[in-house]
Amino acid sequence: MTEHTPRATGPEHDNPSPAPARSTAGQERPVCDVGVLARRLPVWEHPLPDFDPDGAPDEPVALFREWFRHAAEAGVPEPQSMTLATAGADGEPDARVVVLHEADEAGWHFASHRDSAKGRDLAERPHAALCFYWPRVGRQVRVRGPVATASEQASSADLHRRSPGALAAALVGRQSRPLGSAGELARASQDAWEQAHRDPGAPVPRWTLYTLRPAEVEFFQGDARYRRHVRLLYRRSPKGWRRGLLWP
Question: Do the Cβ atoms of 97 and 91 come closer than 8 Å?
Fold first, then answer.
């Protein structure tokens, strides 16, 4: 987690004088000093929940379900959003935000086109990491492990349980490929929306459901007052899950 630094004071910080920048309209506006602004932004200026790791369940998915429900009930925006990190055959890492579809005893489930950038990464190196961050409750969940692909039937069933918008987006396809113009996307999207409403069961053969089978799952609970953050790590072993604490 990023360390919070109290707001700096004094002329240098209270009245920064960044170099002006010219907007497209020809008007000057100050350039954002990212460092100064980042130090000014508040972190966890509200009460955070307690977490007693001694009372945690034996398996991580049970604790994840508890925390996920708590995040949703606490008003965390889109708690199902997660960062997915992959690497291709060249070892270069990549990351993007995707949507969680399910978390159960088999693992954490998400989906994409198998010919997308992440799909190609997972075909070349079927391992990944996930990260959930819920700032309103100061919690983070990190998951790492091998990734398996579901059958075409299971992938299709997952897609068609979702909204017409999700189906339309899947029908557009061509994810991460070069786009000639915004108009080209608008036409393809309109065609896909019409098809999704006309045929709710339209097949999308490249759509693939993935399951990350966790080798490690870490639960992080922030401590706003003393920074004595709690980190509980579950690690899979031949005899089941082992638990242990980590220094923050």
Answer: no
- pLDDT > 50? residue 231: yes
Contact 204, 143 (CB under 8 A): no
Q: What is the pLDDT of residue 121?
A: 97
- Tell me the per-residue pLDDT of 81-135, one tens digit each, with 9 for 90 and over: 999 999 999 999 999 999 999 999 999 999 999 999 999 999 999 999 999 999 9
Residue range 186-217, pLDDT digits in tens? 999 999 999 999 999 988 989 999 999 999 99
Q: Could you tell me which residues are beta bridge partners of residue 110?
A: 210
Q: What letter does residue 76 receive in the DSSP assignment?
A: -
CATH superfamily of 48-173+195-246: Electron Transport, Fmn-binding Protein; Chain A (2.30.110.10)
Residue recorded with tokens 């360390």:
3
Instruction: Pick the closest to residue 44 from 140, 177, 186 (CA basis).
Output: 140
Residue type at 138 in one-letter notation? G
CA distance 148 to 23: 48
Residue 179: pLDDT band (50, 70, 90) is confident
Give the Cα separation of 123 and 158 in Å (integer): 20
Structure tokens at 244: 């242990």
Q: Who's near 235: CB < 8 A, 6+ residues apart?
A: 215, 216, 241, 242, 243, 244
Helix axes 164-172, 152-160, angle to 10 degrees: 130
Q: Give domain limits for the chain.
A: 48-173+195-246
Alpha helices (runs of H) in 21-151, residue ranges in sequence order: 34-40, 60-73, 117-124
d(CA 122, CA 115): 10
